[in-house]
Design brief:
heterotrimer, A mainly alpha (about 220), B mainly alpha (about 220), C alpha/beta (about 240), B: about 220 residues, mainly alpha, C: about 240 residues, alpha/beta, four-stranded antiparallel beta sheet, 9 helices, about 40% helix, MetI-like (chain A), AA_ABC_transptr_permease_3TM (chain A), transmembrane (chain A), membrane (chain A), L-cystine transmembrane transporter activity (chain A)
């Protein structure tokens, strides 16, 4: 029944390349998260504080990001913009797509975080003579940050997992690189099995370090 | 050089049917995997709750793998693994198997959360009325816990529906794969992507809104 | 001195304050009593501009609180406020809670701010809780923390908005004692309160609010033992 002979040697030989590609995966995920957090925060504030076109811009972004597949979003930045004459390199496509997606999801997390901080905290800060900016940066944002810390961690994991779609658009991050080697050697299973392990380790490392960091950050 | 200005230049009615058929395939593979996956996930969730650390160590850590490795890698691995053990599965069947396990892995966490959302005192009360363990589970835990985690479950359902697009990596022609094929042929990326995106959005957005409303109503 | 003239406040159709005239002199302790919904808390919110007003004026040491060109943040430094829900900042230790505003609003150095914080926390009897986070403090301790936080800004007036209403009964005493201490030190205070004992023993004057109107104001003996207004009589009969 089991007639397949595993060949791990070629995989081991290209392991350094795979690990290198793993770093690229991390880079893409981290970059997308940084952009996603920045834009997500803006979108959340636009959705909560503004009326008119800017609010609807934010709402549309959030809802499209959350209600269509990531692969669709990547196709848009790929074929879609390509047809309009904007040919982006795969690296930019994947970062743009993931940032777009992360921003949408994080915006809703931020919104929930802001709503969870009671308005009375604002009154208390204003009564001490703090201005709006001081109230936000010193009192509100730190509390929101704690509330969204775990959702951000989860989103980071998602960003790593989603970056594997690089393979579908010809980007050679961990999955794309794996496919490249696999198709050259026909050792598809072996290559992807090793890659699965690498992903698992990356995800566990992220969750572990996030837990360590949270113990240091949040002592209350 | 000739500019193509006509909107429907390469896109014809049969293409629309091709897309509609692919959309049905997306629906079909999603419904099948989500249904079976939810039942399995419910059982796993119950095991995680009742089995304490033993279950967490066995079932829990296996399911955790499916949440920590990109879906696309799981699909490729399983598709290439099945023939090794003598199974000849087509892309559709492989897709269903992996999407089902993936759903179950996500639902198991939701289900355990649901069981734990039912106050212990309530369960003691039902048992003191003479209900058996299973009656308590069926008539008390399922409705109350189910209601508590219904929005989270909807989140999983919509996630899997969107992730079903990844089965295209095995060559299964679901909606996004069909769009990709049509785009290559007709060079009408905007129209086709808009149609595909609109399909996902039209399916996902109302359901996510309903879940959000449901959550608000129960939060009060 | 706080001067309130013909103050009107509406929440939509609701007329919450209907022409309040009130002066509070430096060093005076004024207690404001009345049933809930009588507008007494709103009065405090109008004094430090947390609520806009529709008519009339509030002046603090001659400065119009609601005038367009008034720097409210500057003005609020004169006014300490303590809320019913103590509103301690959960992400900061007791010491940091108190030190934050002196540092970022008044521009004090870190050492100076921490010194002030330590002094004020000892002042309200929390000298042993400097490094604790609010979550580790009881309601009464958090309320005293809120008082220390307000005092650290060296306010000239203190506004107390039902400072003991949300506390467990056994914690009320410690907060009232702290307020009493402040009164003895000569702080100017406006206390919206349900604690009749405190109002009677500590205040120089007591004001009774009824449905947005200041029905009666006078020394505690007058309000509690020979009230003129029928509403005041009825209210006092009910709370006793």
């Amino acid at each position: 029944m089991f007639e397949y002979n595993f060949h791990w040697r070629p995989v081991l030989k290209s392991l350094p390349d795979l690990l290198q590609a793993g770093l690229l995966t991390l880079e893409v995920a981290v970059l997308s998260m940084v952009i996603g957090i920045t834009i997500g925060l803006c979108l959340a504030l636009m959705r909560m504080k503004l009326e008119g076109p800017l609010k609807w811009f934010a709402v549309s972004w959030i809802e499209v990001a959350r209600n269509t597949p990531v692969l669709f979003q990547l196709f848009f930045f790929g074929f879609g913009l390509g047809a309009a004459g904007v040919n982006l390199p795969p690296y930019v496509i994947i970062v743009a797509g993931l940032s777009f997606n992360c921003a949408g999801y994080l915006a809703e997390n931020f919104r929930g975080g802001f709503q969870a901080v009671p308005d009375t905290q604002i009154n208390a800060a204003r009564c001490l003579g703090m201005n709006g900016w001081q109230t936000y940066t010193r009192i509100i944002i730190p509390q929101v940050f704690r509330i969204v810390y775990h959702p951000i961690t989860n989103q980071m994991v998602w960003a790593v997992l989603m970056s594997s779609l690089g393979m579908m658009i010809g980007f050679r991050e961990l999955s794309g690189e794996t496919q490249f080697f696999a198709s050259r050697t026909f050792r598809i299973f072996e290559y992807f099995a090793v890659t699965a392990v690498v992903y698992y380790v990356i995800v566990k490392l992220i969750l572990g370090s996030s837990r360590l960091l949270s113990a240091r950050l949040f002592r209350y | 050089m000739q500019e193509t200005i006509t909107f429907f230049s390469g896109f014809s009615t049969p293409d629309l049917w091709f897309l509609a058929d692919a959309a049905l395939k997306t629906l079909w593979i999603s419904v099948l995997s989500i249904s079976i996956g939810t039942v399995l996930g419910g059982i796993f969730g119950w095991m995680l709750h009742e089995g304490k650390w033993m279950a967490a160590l066995t079932v829990g850590s296996i399911l955790d793998i499916f949440r920590s490795v990109p879906l696309i890698i799981q699909l490729v691995l399983f598709y290439n693994f099945a023939p090794m053990v003598g199974l000849s599965l087509d892309p559709f069947a492989s897709g269903v198997v992996i999407l089902t396990i993936y759903t179950a892995a996500l639902v198991s966490n939701v289900a355990r959360g649901g069981i734990e959302a039912v106050p212990v005192s309530m369960r003691k009360a039902s048992r003191s009325l003479g209900m058996s363990y299973w009656q308590d589970l069926r008539h008390i835990v399922l409705p109350i816990g189910g209601r508590a985690v219904f929005p989270a479950w909807i989140g999983v359902v919509l996630g899997v529906m969107k992730d079903s697009a990844l089965v295209s990596v095995l060559g299964y022609v679901e909606l996004l794969k069909a769009s990709q094929i049509l785009i290559t042929r007709t060079q009408e990326p905007f129209l086709i992507l808009a149609l595909a995106g609109a399909f996902y959005f039209a399916l996902s957005y109302p359901i996510s809104r309903y879940a959000a409303k449901f959550e608000q109503r129960w939060a009060q | 001195m706080i001067e309130i003239r013909d103050l009107h406040k509406h929440f939509g159709d609701l007329h919450v304050l209907k022409g309040i005239d009130l002066d509070v002199k430096k060093g005076e302790v004024l207690s404001v009593i009345g049933s809930s919904g009588s507008g007494k808390s709103t009065l405090l919110y109008c004094i430090n501009s947390l609520e806009k007003i529709q008519q009339g004026s509030v002046k603090i040491d001659g400065i119009d609180v609601h005038a367009k060109n008034t720097d409210v943040n500057k003005l609020r430094q004169k006014l300490g406020m303590v809320f019913q829900q103590w509103n301690s900042f959960p992400h900061l230790t007791a010491m940091e809670n108190v030190a934050l505003a002196p540092r970022i609003v008044k521009g004090k150095s870190k050492e100076e701010a921490l010194y002030i914080a330590e002094t004020q926390l000892k002042h309200v009897g929390l000298g042993d809780k400097l490094k604790n986070y609010p979550s580790a403090l009881s309601g009464g301790q958090q309320q005293r923390l809120a008082i220390a936080r307000a005092l650290a800004m060296e306010p000239e007036y203190m506004l107390f908005d039902e400072a003991t209403s949300a506390l467990d009964p056994e914690k009320v005493g410690e907060v009232l004692d702290t307020m009493r201490l402040l009164a003895e030190e000569g702080m100017t205070m406006i206390c919206v309160t349900h604690e009749m004992g405190f109002a009677r023993d500590v205040s120089d004057r007591v004001a009774y609010f009824h449905q947005g109107v200041m029905e009666e104001i006078g020394p505690p003996e007058q309000i509690f033992y020979s009230p003129i207004s029928e509403h005041t009589k009825k209210f006092l009969a009910n709370v006793r």
